[in-house]
Write a structure and sequence with these properties.
Length: 917
RNA sequence: GGGCGGAUAGCUCAGCUGGUCAGAGCGCUGCCCUUACAAGGCAGAGGUCACAGGUUCGACCCCUGUUCCGCCUACCA
């Protein structure tokens, strides 16, 4: 074996072997109780970032753990077609090639996207493999696969037939860059400082009396069809029913009373109403029967036809025509000012809605769209979580989820793009012409809100109303999240009744980031309950965001991205995985720093070198003795190991990846390597010793067990080492996961070894403070009146002497200090105190020694005072549980005994230095 | 505006239903190339657990309030 672990040589080789041997593949008829996870499908446009790395590491830990436990384990991988994002990418590419999607036409464009997907859409899958993900690649799915598309059509049709999907003209969020509708949650709100404009609207019958309104969007004034005041506002309510002259136009608009829209405290207390361009105004418009004047077009420019309809002053119409909203605003404000309408402008904090894909400011836009009537779907989804049929972990998310679900709005699912699942609705051209709901243009057509759709699984051959054969399909596609909402059952073959569906649905655990709780998780729950009649998963483990070391969100523009691929190259995949697991504390963002990864790289190397040591001592007879007959040190490590096994399993059950990782780290490094390997060296060095053979056995057995325990976290290095060790089976990844054996856990042996280590540590402490090299052999003597302690130490006399570097060790009830000795008290974990003297003739620095003892005395004095205070308090003695009282008393006695011993020692030192000086 | 979370060692974080000197990793200091490992070993320094009250025999933990920092959510134009 090499002196240092080199991940590069190992990772690819083992991954390939695992795949070739089919270990990742799951069968619906396989043995063991099913355990299934569906992977949150990354976008095909994506490349692996730390969020993916975390997400998939955690899933792989769960999957490998369950697989080793003998469960029938399925991890379904896949990718998402990411409608808007992918279309953007391909359009950009077309632009570089000097063409556009409109020039290509729909069919050829979609073909282009598929070509692009074939070429670059698989990158992230390869990257997931590098991470060690043990997914069933035979079941790789894509949201646009034929099977999944069939599921989408099925769901759409059934929801439509159930009256849960409808088409209608609503105000929706529109991205003027992506040129499509967005759902409410696809809009990100960003705080911004805007301006609040106070504008005078003169009364129609008394031009000298203005009604002043306040608005953040003065350009929309041209589309106002009313002004609202509060009906109980004495300042204004006499105006209700009158009309005002809309500035910059030739229109008169009514003043209405509206207590919902108007907040008397805000602004001027009067609100302009623009039903076509504001969500609240839209509602208000409905309440008061106000017309809707749309004057902003799809690209967020002022529409000439709209300006004309709005009877905007001719001169202004010309200047505004086709101007982007932002420019138009300046022109309108300018015109208002010149006309004397502008009363006041003030700074105003506000939230700007932006497209979550491209960050363009979204426009409320009036258009016919498809919606899911969500309330009836939400109700069962609320119940499933309330009743804990579905558990959210950490549980804090439950409130968030429930609050959002209870206040859910209808879901706009149509997108005006080409890449995606085209809506399975058709329209009769003949009927459309007759009713004027289908407006034909040279190369396209427009459907009004009243157009009558024929929703079907397959293209209908003729119109059921008029019998004509000329039908056109709805050009819109579905929101990408509509198809991912079906993921847990569509990937298993639904709507067909497959064995996979029967075995693996509901899936066991969903691992995901909180950022898509509403986008994805909530919708999967609704759809799963609706179409499968059962929740899609039992547990939802919600992990945090990965940030940089300063807590900033990683982003390309900030340049603070830590690329997982680079990290894997530099430190190895196992180190990255372990880091992410160890830092996955529930409910806290992960602040990733390279130093931390380096630390776990070192951990991997530590493990590697422990393996080298063990393999070095593999030769020689091994005694497969019953545990009871093995040396105490062996029984000790087995006891500790089985405690560790219990803890790791419990932590994993509780989704405490951080706890499990830290337990493993702590045990492997600081118990197994630091102590066990050291304790075992004397026995191994003496090949003839009776202990050598059983110790070799224990060493190898325990380490092999430890590797299996660690495997889900660090799959590569554990496999590499395991294969070099005596083992049963062909791969560690299908070897059984360790389970704790309570019979091996032994408190008294743990206490016994703890007393050995406490003496060794005491000697080392003296060495450290006196600066004595560990190579220098010393003489030492331990005195203790505690019989058990004394006997234990005597039993392990040679062991202590050997690993503490003591050539002459005396142990007795009472011993004589050396003339020049340093000393330390030793507390026996089972109760009792001793003192150890180390002969430092010619080496001792008495001052340092005094300082050390004085410091310890001070600590003890504080402790004694504290326990004394408690014990002298009658309330404490009366009320406290007996075991706590006992412990406190014992602690008190221990400290007093130790204090006494050290005080004597200090006195002796003072006399000594006094005598010398 | 509402909701959630956080504030513990220089940094990043654990600390389970209140009860033995408050823990870890990294960093820092000193000594050590001891035959698995210098990507290492041994030892050590470092904390009025944000602040103020309260409950309790006892509070990092429970309650109230305050300050600061995140995030989600919301139509105050």
């Amino acid at each position: 074996m090499e002196k240092a672990y080199d991940p590069k040589q190992v990772e690819q080789r083992w991954y390939q072997t695992w795949v070739e041997r089919g270990y990742f593949h799951a069968s619906a008829t396989g043995p063991g109780s099913p355990y299934a996870i569906v992977m949150p499908p990354p976008n095909i446009t994506g490349s692996l970032h730390m969020g993916h790395a975390l997400n998939n590491t955690l899933q792989d830990i769960l999957i490998r753990w369950r697989r080793m436990q003998g469960r029938n384990t399925l991890w379904v991988p896949g990718t998402d077609h990411a409608g808007i994002a992918t279309q953007n990418v391909v359009e950009k590419q077309l632009l570089a090639e000097g063409t556009t999607r409109d020039k290509l036409g729909r069919d050829r464009f979609i073909q282009k996207v598929w070509e692009w997907k074939a070429q670059s859409g698989g990158a992230i899958i390869e990257q997931l493999k590098r991470l060690g993900s043990s997914c069933d690649w035979d079941r790789l799915r894509f949201t646009m696969d034929e099977g999944l598309s069939k599921a989408v059509r099925e769901v759409f049709v059934r929801l439509y037939e159930d009256g849960l999907i409808y088409r209608g003209e609503r105000l929706i969020n529109w991205c003027p860059r992506c040129l499509t509708a967005l759902s409410d949650i696809e809009v990100e709100h960003e705080d911004a400082t805007g301006k609040l404009y106070h504008i005078r609207y003169p009364l129609a019958d008394d031009r000298s009396t203005p009604l002043t309104v306040a608005t953040t969007r003065p350009e929309t004034l041209l589309g106002d069809t009313g002004v609202a005041v509060h009906p109980e506002d004495p300042r204004y309510n006499r105006f209700i029913g009158k009309r005002v002259k809309l500035p910059l136009t030739r229109r008169l608009i009514p003043v209405v009373g509206d207590s919902i829209l108007v907040d008397r405290e805000f602004g001027t207390g009067a609100v302009k109403i623009t039903p076509a361009h504001d969500f609240n105004d839209f509602e208000a418009g409905l309440r008061h029967n106000l017309p809707r004047l749309a004057l902003i077009d799809q690209q967020a420019r002022l529409d000439p036809a709209g300006l004309r309809d709005a009877q905007v002053d001719d001169a202004l119409q010309e200047r505004l025509a086709s101007k982007p909203v932002r420019e138009a605003r300046a022109l309108v404000v300018d015109a208002l000012e010149k006309g004397g309408f502008l009363a006041k402008v003030e700074d105003h904090p506000m939230a700007l809605g932006k497209c979550y894909r491209c960050k363009t400011v979204v426009e409320p836009y009036l258009s016919p769209q498809w919606f899911v009537k969500i309330q009836p779907l939400a109700e069962p989804a609320i119940k499933a979580v309330e009743s804990a049929q579905i558990r959210l972990i950490p549980a804090q998310w439950t409130n968030n989820y429930l609050a959002w679900m209870r206040d859910i709005k209808d879901w706009c699912i149509s997108r005006q793009i080409w890449w995606g699942h085209q809506i399975p609705a058709w329209y009769c051209v003949n009927c459309g012409r007759d009713t004027g709901t289908l407006l034909e243009a040279p190369k396209s057509f427009t459907l009004t809100a009243e157009a009558k759709p024929l929703v079907a699984r397959h293209a209908p051959s003729h119109c059921p109303d008029c019998g004509h054969h000329q039908l056109v399909r709805d050009p819109d596609v579905l929101d990408t999240w509509f198809s991912s909402a079906l993921w847990p059952f569509s990937t298993l073959g639904w709507p067909d009744e497959t064995p996979e569906l029967k075995t693996f649905y509901p899936t066991s655990t969903l691992v995901t980031g909180f950022d898509i709780l509403f986008f994805w998780v909530a919708r999967m729950i609704m759809m799963g309950l609706k179409f499968m009649g059962q929740e899609p998963f039992r547990d939802v483990y919600i992990h945090a965001l990965v940030r940089d070391a300063e807590g900033q969100k990683m982003s390309k523009s900030k340049g603070n991205v830590i690329d997982p691929l680079e990290v894997m190259d530099k430190y190895g995949t196992d180190a990255l995985r372990f880091t992410l697991a160890a830092m996955a504390s529930p409910g806290r963002d992960i602040k990733l720093s390279e130093e931390r990864i380096e630390g776990y790289r070192n951990f991997a190397n530590k493990l590697w070198n422990a393996a080298r040591f063990i393999l070095m001592h593999r030769e020689g007879p091994r005694a497969d003795a019953p545990v009871a007959e093995r040396p105490v040190t062996d029984r000790w490590i087995l006891s500790r190991l089985h405690r560790c096994i219990g803890e790791v399993n419990a932590s994993l059950e509780a989704y405490r990846f951080d706890e499990a990782a830290n337990t493993l780290y702590q045990f492997i490094w600081h118990e197994y390597c630091d102590w066990y390997v050291e304790l075992v060296k004397p026995a191994l060095a003496d090949k003839a010793s009776r202990q050598a053979a059983p110790t070799r056995t224990t060493l190898i057995e325990s380490f092999e067990t430890l590797l299996r325990l660690l495997h889900p976290f660090m799959p590569f290095i554990t496999e590499e080492i395991w294969q070099a060790l005596p083992h049963k089976g062909e791969s560690i990844m299908i070897a059984p996961y360790p389970t704790p054996n309570p019979a091996l856990i032994n408190d008294s042996i743990e206490t016994e070894i703890a007393s050995v280590t406490s003496v060794v540590s005491a000697v080392r402490n003296i060495r450290g403070s006196q600066g004595i090299p560990s190579s220098r052999q010393l003489h030492a003597a331990v005195a203790t009146p505690a019989e058990t302690f004394k006997n234990t130490l005597k039993t392990h006399h040679n062991l202590i002497a050997s690993i503490a570097g003591i050539s002459d060790l005396a142990i007795d009830t009472d011993v004589k200090p050396y003339p020049h000795s340093a000393s330390s008290s030793v507390v026996f974990p089972g109760g009792g105190v001793g003192i150890i003297y180390v002969d430092l003739a010619g080496l001792i620095d008495v001052e340092k020694e005094k300082t050390r003892i004085e410091k310890r005395l001070k600590e003890l004095a504080a402790q004694i005072e504290q326990t004394e205070k408690k014990l002298s308090n009658p309330h404490f003695v009366a009320k406290v549980p007996p075991d706590v009282l006992k412990k406190t008393k014992a602690r008190h006695e221990e400290c007093r005994a130790e204090h006494e011993k050290l005080t004597g020692e200090l006195r002796r030192l003072r006399a000594m230095s006094g005598g010398a000086g």
